[in-house]
Amino acid sequence: MQNPHGKALAGADRPVLHQGVDIIRIAGIKSFGHHGALPEEKRLGQRFTVSVDLEIDTRPAAAADDLKLTVNYAEVIRTVEGQLTGKPVYLIETLAQQIAARILGTFPVTKAVTVEVSKPFAPVAAEFDAISVKIRRERV
Fold it and tell me: Domain residues for 66?
């Protein structure tokens, strides 16, 4: 089929590929850490849960079917776990920032990252599922 200017239009046999951002999501990474503002959080520690959304153009990796052109999920998980079990910080905001910076610094194909850090057992005198912070950082 052609448009009025004689150019071929995309039909069922000619797919139009979206040129937007692709997202690789790794949800629910769990690890034990000693982060928190209270002395007992630092001393006793607690479980944290992290989810990350990596914004990547996956087309080169998909076309070549080559892991070297994308991110290795196991390496991303190890990176997140390293931050969770590493040097304690007071705020989960700080922890989220450190995770985002480490991911952007380690995986150059990542254009931006969204990190959500959840604290399911935060020492708050109330009933809740989790307290979390979610940030998005992008490569400059």
Answer: 22-138
